[in-house]
Write a structure and sequence with these properties.
Layout lengths: L1 H6 E4 L12 H15 L2 H8 L3 H9 L5 H11 L3 H6 L13 E10 L3 E11 H4 L11 E5 L14 E5 L10 E6 L9 E7 L5 E4 L11 H4 E11 L3
Parallel strand pairs: 2-4
Antiparallel strand pairs: 1-3, 2-3, 4-5, 5-9, 6-7, 6-9, 7-8
Helix pairs in contact: 3-4, 3-5
Length: 231
């Protein structure tokens, strides 16, 4: 996948869990540790681009968003995984200058999607994508199956903008059935607007194999804005 090699650097570690199994106090203790290493709360807040009052909130009873967590780890020079979950080494490879971390997920039939690692994507390249997406809104999914072939082939990496879930005719979206958990099973389908203004989802490999009305049966994760795979 030559094009991907030019725009991305793989970070070989698992993405952080969204919730620390040891609870908030364990996260707060790790945060106190990086504060001590940085010197002061004010020094860390300036490096991370947040207010010192925000860090005080994180120490007390809240936790940062994914974007702020990544910024905090970069400012402290520690692993995102370690800061979020306590797993792995505290120190990790630094994100190259001009890149941002985007989580990559594998999709498996019958098991939804699960975290695999991060890719560090060039901010310059991201800025040229449709809709000029916010880097922290992006997710990479490894597609499974040929329902969207030739646009998306089995094994392709698909970049999804989670801040763009509104359906537009002809757009390709990551969706999952409303009757299941958010992780089971994620799929890609093209939106097609009906004469009455409502939408249906179709497969590119067979446009007549419709899915039911998405407003009733599916949740939209976001719009697919780029796809690529091995030649």
């Amino acid at each position: 996948m030559a094009s991907t090699r030019r725009i991305a650097t793989r970070i070989k570690r698992h993405p952080p869990a969204l919730a620390d199994p040891k609870g908030h106090e364990a996260f707060a203790e790790r945060l106190r540790h990086v504060i001590r290493e940085t010197g002061t709360i004010l020094a860390l807040s300036e490096k991370a681009g947040v207010s010192d009052s925000t860090i005080h909130l994180w120490l007390r009873d809240s936790e940062p968003s994914r974007e702020k967590l990544v910024n905090l780890a970069e400012a402290a020079g520690v692993s995102v995984e370690w800061l979020a979950t306590g797993r792995g080494e505290m120190r990790a490879d630094r994100v190259p200058e001009g890149y941002v971390l985007v989580p990559r997920y594998e999709i498996g039939e019958g098991r939804g999607f699960e975290g695999s690692d991060y890719l560090a994507l060039k901010t310059e390249w991201i800025a040229k994508l449709p809709g000029n997406p916010a880097p922290h809104a992006l997710h990479l999914f490894e597609a499974s199956g040929d329902a969207m072939s030739p646009a998306i082939a089995d094994g392709d990496l698909v970049l999804v903008n989670a801040f763009d879930p509104d359906l537009r005719d002809g757009g390709v979206y990551a969706i999952y059935p409303a009757s299941t958990a958010p992780t089971l099973p994620l799929m890609f389908r093209r939106a097609r607007q009906r004469a009455d203004g409502t939408f249906e989802f179709i497969r590119d490999d067979d446009p007549e194999r419709h899915l039911v009305e998405p407003a009733k049966a599916f949740h939209t994760v976001g719009r697919a804005i780029w796809a690529g795979g091995p030649l």
